[in-house]
Write a structure and sequence with these properties.
Structural class: alpha/beta
Number of helices: 13
Number of strands: 12
Helix content: 40-55%
CATH architecture of the largest domain: 3-Layer(aba) Sandwich
Largest sheet: 7 strands, mixed
Radius of gyration: 18 Å
Strand content: 15-25%
CATH superfamily of the largest domain: Periplasmic binding protein-like II
CATH topology of the largest domain: D-Maltodextrin-Binding Protein, domain 2
Length: 295
Amino acid sequence: MKIRCAISPDADDRFMFRAIELGLIDTEGLEFAIVARDTEALNYTASDNADPRGPPALTAVSIAHYPAIAARYQLLNHGGSVGRGYGPVLVARPDRVDALRRSLHGARIAVPGVTTTACLTLRLLVGATPEHPVFTPITVPITPPSLTFDALNDPAAAIDAALIIHEGRLTYRDAGFDLVMDIGERWEARTALPLPLGGNVLLRELDPALRATIDRVVRASIEHALVRDREAAIAWLLERPGPLRTRAQVDTYLSLYANADTLDYGVDGREGIRRLLDDGAAAGWLAPCTVDVLC
């Protein structure tokens, strides 16, 4: 049976699905057809009703987008990206940093998408609501990451700052930009909880036995990368095109976003998910949502 999967092209998702992609583990008779899309596109794909094949069986999504798809998908307990005292970063040209640290009111901010966790969390941290949005989000695709840096440097784009996710948080200084705010750091100071950024979700309509098999296989792939074959996985990632070009960069990135939390959100990780979605609903950005996690 062929299982359609959608993941991001970033190093953490590729790392998690490498063992499936290369046939390094027993997939229990399943064939996985994996496509890569940027974060905002993944969110829209999970909500899409136009594809005649139907939605993908398994997809990575932003946690902030989960309420929009909760009736269709269930969140898996593994495959998550969690920031513990770190997360997406808001960056700007050096001459704009001080003013932006004082206030984001009226700023035009490049974001990876308005459905992303990064965008929601920044809105919550600055007290934005749909009635009083504080800043104007300008969606700039994150693939490749250079698009966001180019937008910051383009006078015609009139971008004041950029919200950076994935590998760009390790390379923005090399591109000539400075930190305005670490979103994950601010979130932990506000909530004493980790920031749940992304996760894997599984179609509810699938046969229960098939759902259980997919769940086991994907977890086995993550465990293979984390525990059994991490060095080989890092070498494999370095063979692929991407913004991280040294072993140290890839190692650092994976330590942030593909780690023990990726195998299991843990009690505080699941509480972080509920807090983020509750706060998003209270501020008017999200629909109320009860999170049930497939353990």
